[in-house]
Amino acid sequence: MESSIHPLAKKTVIYYLMTTSILLIFMMILGVIMLLNQGEMIQISPEWFYKIMTAHGIGMVGVAALGGTSIMWYFLSKYIKLRPSIFLQNFTLSLIGIILIVIAIFGFNFSDAWTFLYPLPAQSAQFYGVTGPLLFLFGVLILGVGYLIMYAYLAARLIKEYGGLGKSLGWDYIFRGKKGYGPPPAVVATTMVVITNSTAVIAGAIVIIGSIINILIPAISMDPMLAKHLTYAFGHVFCNATIYMAVIAVYEVLSHYTKRPWKSNKAFLIAWNASTLFTLMIYTHHLLMDFAVPTWMLIIGQVFSYANGLPVMVVTAYGALMIVYRSGIKWDFASSLLFLAMFGWVAGAIPAIIDATIVVNHVMHNTKWVPGHFHTYMGMGVIAMILGFMYYFNKKEGSMKHNHFDTFSIALYFTFFTGIVGSFLYAGSMSTPRRWAVHMPEWVLSDQIGAISGIFVVLATVLITVRFFTGLKGVGKTT
Ligand code: HEM
Ligand SMILES: [Cu+2]
């Protein structure tokens, strides 16, 4: 059953991981620069701050998506024969998208944040010219098209192999009383991501095309409220989907290490089905401040935000504890990173649940509390899973072995990432607004603590990345 991965797909995994890790380091440096500026340790102009913030936001989402995709493809290949050219085309279109985005930001001053909320791009087009917003929007569109093609292909493959997406989500076991275990977790998770993220990317494509038309022909405009709905239906779900792709590594790697299969029992299948549905429903928590949105919609946003990730998180955390319990598992770089990552994910959900409460949201939203939450689940969850997968890949496909150096860099990463998110959450609880280039004197200390922690996180990530690149030499022999 082991690695039936096509040699070209294996090479492509390497392209994905190399791009992910290098981009990650650059984006982290941009994050540190923002904190150094907010902490008054360096001074950059507000124009530069917002360019950097835009690049960091979209770049990090891209990093998580590329890393997550490589995990999904690598493990899904164990169960279904996949055509590597599709995997490679997604990489190519992503790369083209990234290049256009970089040119838009640093060449043409696009700085409307990665959420490109309509009508901001049209307004800044009047200021800096249409090239920046158009390049940026086309960049994101091309990237989205790459994902859409990949998801359409995966959907077709899942339907062919399992007889339908309902079947690959285990409906036979949930609704028709079929006995035994459902499809492998990698298949269930991929189905969930295909359904939710295709929807998200289509919503994103509609609003991006609308925005592009509006920039070219200002007489044709969109309803800003509708545009905001579509934008967050895209942004929220796209970010969320990265973790549902990356978590496949937790299932596969922990079961490989413990030599116990991670089976899709009924609770597991119900959880994934529930999260599929909820993920699509809850983006309205980004609109809790918009009084024009009908109350029932906001209540759905609130109630299901509590429930959203919980089912999958609970079955995953519980499953991981059970599979590890008395298994005599050998803890090394991959198994420990993936185990820790799961708790980063759980920890990151707690501040989100607090913030999703409407009354709290009115105070906390748009404060640093929000970056505090998503940096926890992205940085210590998704990214840690991707780093864990990088080690696993080199160990499984090459000959890399854990050493004390790895223990050190992993500890460094988690310790100081806790410092970053701690400083964000603390700043948020003092009502420090997010997305402000310049901070009041009473907020500066938390920024400085964040910046110093950030420098150590960059260092840890550089160490891990260097290990990854040197470990790849061993993989070269087998590809
Ligand atoms: C060394 C690590 C990092 C540092 C120092 C850092 C720092 C920052 C800072 C200072 C901001 C702006 C906060 C504000 O609104 O005032 C920010 C925003 C953001 N970061 Fe990070 N970050 C790091 C890692 C990450 C990672 C790993 C991810 C995701 C994978 C990420 C995703 C984002 C996103 C999506 C935003 C929002 C941008 C926006 O508001 O438009 N960051 N980060
Ligand atoms: Cu959201």
From TrEMBL:
<feature type="transmembrane region" description="Helical">
    <location>
        <begin position="87"/>
        <end position="110"/>
    </location>
</feature>
<keyword id="KW-0679">Respiratory chain</keyword>
<keyword id="KW-0813">Transport</keyword>
<feature type="transmembrane region" description="Helical">
    <location>
        <begin position="303"/>
        <end position="325"/>
    </location>
</feature>
<feature type="domain" description="Cytochrome oxidase subunit I profile">
    <location>
        <begin position="10"/>
        <end position="479"/>
    </location>
</feature>
<feature type="transmembrane region" description="Helical">
    <location>
        <begin position="200"/>
        <end position="220"/>
    </location>
</feature>
<feature type="transmembrane region" description="Helical">
    <location>
        <begin position="448"/>
        <end position="469"/>
    </location>
</feature>
<keyword id="KW-0472">Membrane</keyword>
<feature type="transmembrane region" description="Helical">
    <location>
        <begin position="130"/>
        <end position="154"/>
    </location>
</feature>
<feature type="transmembrane region" description="Helical">
    <location>
        <begin position="12"/>
        <end position="36"/>
    </location>
</feature>
<dbReference type="Pfam" id="PF00115">
    <property type="entry name" value="COX1"/>
</dbReference>
<keyword id="KW-1133">Transmembrane helix</keyword>
<dbReference type="InterPro" id="IPR023616">
    <property type="entry name" value="Cyt_c_oxase-like_su1_dom"/>
</dbReference>
<dbReference type="GO" id="GO:0016020">
    <property type="term" value="C:membrane"/>
</dbReference>
<feature type="transmembrane region" description="Helical">
    <location>
        <begin position="232"/>
        <end position="254"/>
    </location>
</feature>
<dbReference type="GO" id="GO:0009060">
    <property type="term" value="P:aerobic respiration"/>
</dbReference>
<feature type="transmembrane region" description="Helical">
    <location>
        <begin position="48"/>
        <end position="75"/>
    </location>
</feature>
<feature type="transmembrane region" description="Helical">
    <location>
        <begin position="374"/>
        <end position="393"/>
    </location>
</feature>
<keyword id="KW-0249">Electron transport</keyword>
<protein>
    <submittedName>
        <fullName>Cytochrome c oxidase subunit 1</fullName>
    </submittedName>
</protein>
<dbReference type="GO" id="GO:0004129">
    <property type="term" value="F:cytochrome-c oxidase activity"/>
</dbReference>
<feature type="transmembrane region" description="Helical">
    <location>
        <begin position="337"/>
        <end position="354"/>
    </location>
</feature>
<dbReference type="GO" id="GO:0020037">
    <property type="term" value="F:heme binding"/>
</dbReference>
<feature type="transmembrane region" description="Helical">
    <location>
        <begin position="266"/>
        <end position="283"/>
    </location>
</feature>
<dbReference type="InterPro" id="IPR000883">
    <property type="entry name" value="Cyt_C_Oxase_1"/>
</dbReference>
<keyword id="KW-0812">Transmembrane</keyword>
<dbReference type="InterPro" id="IPR036927">
    <property type="entry name" value="Cyt_c_oxase-like_su1_sf"/>
</dbReference>
<feature type="transmembrane region" description="Helical">
    <location>
        <begin position="405"/>
        <end position="428"/>
    </location>
</feature>
